[in-house]
């Protein structure tokens, strides 16, 4: 008669490889956005495994996905290079963003209810007033401003209900976040909030052309700020 082998109480079960691959992918982005990985930096697979606390196999699988999204380059004999921030990356990321978001906002204007637009305006105005109060260096205010900023853009694209668009937007927005977080001082945030209010005003007027034009103007200004112009 075979003895049934039971796991000891509290024993940890090994996570499926697919789950560990997703853990490695998400932890990589978390470390990137916490600035523990710098644009252009080279790291070895061993160093990355240690940083992410994930075994080599799932980490390698995650790296394939990250390379496909242009967040890393896998260079033989040299290791893993974190995507570098240069003029080409900034221009291409913002160019793609403008094409996607100006199309999406034309739809958003027709489906967003007054309550949603009013809440967007309220949140944006609240953040802007806090900046006017002299809190430009408060990390909590900066984080709140970024969440309001990114939240509006996500809402506009997700309103279309197209999973391909949403996925492409999220991948591209990872590059925008990296550009912002490793770029210049967040002193641009009050300007961005003011531009958001102009976009919201156009949306409240229910004018798709005006909303798209206001959004395009905002994105052009954001690209110039990213380039340090």
What do these coordinates show?
The protein has 229 residues and is mainly alpha-helical. Helices cover 69% and strands 4% of the residues. The protein contains nine helices and three strands, in the order αβααββαααααα. Strands 1-3-2 form a three-stranded antiparallel β-sheet. Helix 5 packs antiparallel against helix 8 and helix 6 runs parallel beside helix 8 (189-204). The longest helix has 25 residues, at 87-111. The radius of gyration is 21 Å and the shape is globular. Mean pLDDT is 89; it is low at 1-12.
What's the SSE blueprint?
Elements: H1 17-33, E1 42-43, H2 45-52, H3 56-68, E2 72-75, E3 79-82, H4 87-111, H5 114-132, H6 139-158, H7 163-181, H8 189-204, H9 208-227
Antiparallel strand pairs: 1-3, 2-3
Work out the number of β strands. 3
Structural class: mainly alpha
| % residues in beta strands | under 5%
Report the biggest beta sheet as strand number plus sense, adding barrel if it closes. Answer: 3 strands, antiparallel
Unreliable runs: 1-12
Quaternary form:
single chain
Strand order of the largest sheet: 1-3-2
> What's the mean pLDDT score?
89
Q: How big is the Rg?
A: 21 Å
What's the overall geometry?
globular
The amount of helix comes to 55-70%
Number of helices: 9
Task: Give the ordered list of helices and strands.
Answer: HEHHEEHHHHHH
Distance between the termini: 78 Å
